[in-house]
Structure formats: structure tokens, C-alpha cells
Design brief:
Helices cover about 40% and strands about 15% of the residues. The protein is an alpha/beta fold. The chain has one domain: Vaccinia Virus protein VP39 (Rossmann fold). A 7-stranded mixed sheet has the order 3-2-1-4-5-7-6, sandwiched between helices. α3 runs antiparallel to α5 (about 80-90) and α9 (about 220-230) runs antiparallel to α11 (about 250-260). The relative contact order is 0.16.
Length: about 280
């Protein structure tokens, strides 16, 4: 069952004329007249704290051999899925609630020459259109902050994963001083669509869904450095302002303040689907 928060989340992330804006940005970056690469797209593709460096770190936790079928839950415009496909040779499936994101994901994947390895579907993470035990691994990067029913999310991921499959979760979680977060932030305009839990809550949720969490890594220091550097420099033509609009800087500044105050923490969890 999907939840009644999803229409608001879809509106939050939906960007009018996103494809046109990206094409103009590719032209401004001087790469529109050739086949684009995943490195060209890195400034906008990595819509999570730490960008491409974080994606590389997360991929290293999966120990992929290159033959796996990988699921990216909440794939956005497909950056992580394309990166995994390009770096490992794996086949990757991305699913996202936002139709505008999926349309752009498909176009960019075609233009990077990765359409044979990465595909994308519009859909809810709470009711995914895949048979049981379809995937060999899964990732979800900065997605669950918009999902109230975490238990349903992780049960659904467990359903579509094979036994013993790895699952890498990188999300913004509640920090030790949780009451100081100011809005807007990249994932929400108000608290009504922001659902943060603690790492301890996450361990319990994952265990109830049939996962064992074998590594929990707080990435707060890394996140603070990332935002300090990002805010100190001029934005790339292909920067995250394409996804966040005119309030992009406010959202990034509020996130940095939340990290510095201990209100939030970016946390990476490596889990594994238990058998049975």
C-alpha cells in the first residue's frame, strides 16, 4: 500500500522543464555536442550529501563482482544507477516516485551509452513492480527521509532481494540534538514531509524486515566538509540548483547548520538480507 504523503513528495521533487534546463546546462558546460559521460553529469547526478565521493564510498560496501542485478530505490535522475553500471558492469534498475526524474534518467542514460545496462521505472518504493527475490543487491541514497512507513519500505526491499543480498542505505538521520533543524532542506519544505529516525531505530526496523546490519557509519564530519566546500565556491552550470531551484543555497545552508548543531547526521548502513 502506498501512503498519502506520496503526492506531496512527488510535487516537492517535480521540476517543470527539467530536461530543457539540463540541456541548457550541458550547453553552458560545453559538453552538449558530444556523447556525455557520467563524469560530466556528476555535479547534478549525485543528489545526496558528499556527491560522487559518497557514491564511490557506498559502492565499495557492496562488494559487487560485475554480474549482479542491482536495485536503486529512489533513484532520482539516475546518477547512482549509471555510476554503478559504468564502474562495475552490473545491470541496474532504478525506481522513483517522480515522473520527471525518470524521464530525465532515461534520456541521460541513453546519451551516456548506458541504456543497455541501466533502466528506470516510475513507482512507489512501498509497492515495487518486481517479483520476489529479483535482485542481487540494493542501494537507497537519501530517500527514506520522505517515507513515513519505514517498516513497509524495508519489508518491500527485503521482498525483492535474494537471500544474503547486500543492501546499502545512506540517509539523513536524527542526530543527538534533533530539535534544531530549519526548513527548507533539500528533501522537504516543512516538517510535514520529513520523517527522520535515529540509527538505533534503523537497526530495529531493518531487523524486523529481515536484515542484519553489519556496519553503521556516521558521516557527519564528511558532510560538514562537503557543504562548506560546496557553499564556498561558485555553483557549476550542472549543479544541484537545477533540481532545487532558486532556494538551493538556503536548503544547503540549512542542512549544513543542521549537521553542525547535531540535529541531523548522514549515516551509511550496510545490511544483508537474511535467508528465509
Amino acid at each position: 500500500m502506498t501512503n498519502d504523503i506520496e503526492p506531496a513528495v512527488r510535487r516537492h521533487y517535480g521540476v517543470t522543464d527539467l530536461g530543457l534546463r539540463l540541456n541548457k546546462a550541458l550547453t553552458a558546460a560545453g559538453v552538449a555536442d558530444r556523447q556525455i559521460t557520467i563524469d560530466d553529469l556528476a555535479p547534478v547526478d549525485e543528489f545526496h550529501i558528499g556527491g560522487r565521493v559518497a557514491t564511490e564510498h557506498i559502492l565499495g560496501k557492496l562488494d559487487l563482482a560485475g554480474t549482479e542485478y542491482v536495485l536503486d530505490v529512489g533513484c532520482g535522475i539516475g546518477g547512482a544507477a549509471r555510476f554503478i553500471a559504468a564502474r562495475t558492469g552490473c545491470r541496474v534498475e532504478g525506481i522513483d516516485l517522480t515522473p520527471e526524474f525518470i524521464e530525465v534518467a532515461r534520456d541521460l542514460t541513453e546519451r551516456t551509452g548506458l541504456a543497455g545496462q541501466a533502466s528506470f521505472t516510475v513507482g512507489s518504493a512501498l509497492a515495487m513492480p518486481y517479483p520476489d527475490a529479483t535482485f542481487d543487491a540494493a542501494v537507497t541514497l537519501h530517500v527514506a527521509m520522505n517515507i513515513a512507513d519505514r517498516a513497509a519500505l524495508y519489508r518491500e526491499v527485503a521482498r525483492v532481494l535474494k537471500p544474503h543480498a547486500p543492501f546499502a542505505i545512506y540517509d539523513v538521520m536524527r542526530g543527538p540534538s534533533p530539535d534544531g533543524l530549519c526548513y527548507p532542506v533539500p528533501w522537504a519544505d516543512t516538517p510535514e514531509t520529513s520523517f527522520l529516525v535515529t540509527p538505533e531505530d534503523m537497526r530495529a526496523l531493518l531487523a524486523d524486515a529481515g536484515f542484519a546490519a553489519d556496519e553503521v557509519e556516521d558521516r557527519t564530519a564528511f558532510g560538514i566538509q562537503f557543504f562548506q566546500e560546496r557553499l564556498a565556491g561558485a555553483p557549476s552550470p550542472l549543479g544541484l540548483q537545477l533540481l532545487m531551484g532558486e532556494t538551493a543555497r538556503d536548503r544547503l545552508e540549512n542542512t549544513l547548520a543542521g549537521l553542525e548543531s547535531g540535529s541531523i547526521a548522514p549515516v551509511l548502513i550496510r545490511a544483508r538480507r537474511l535467508a528465509g
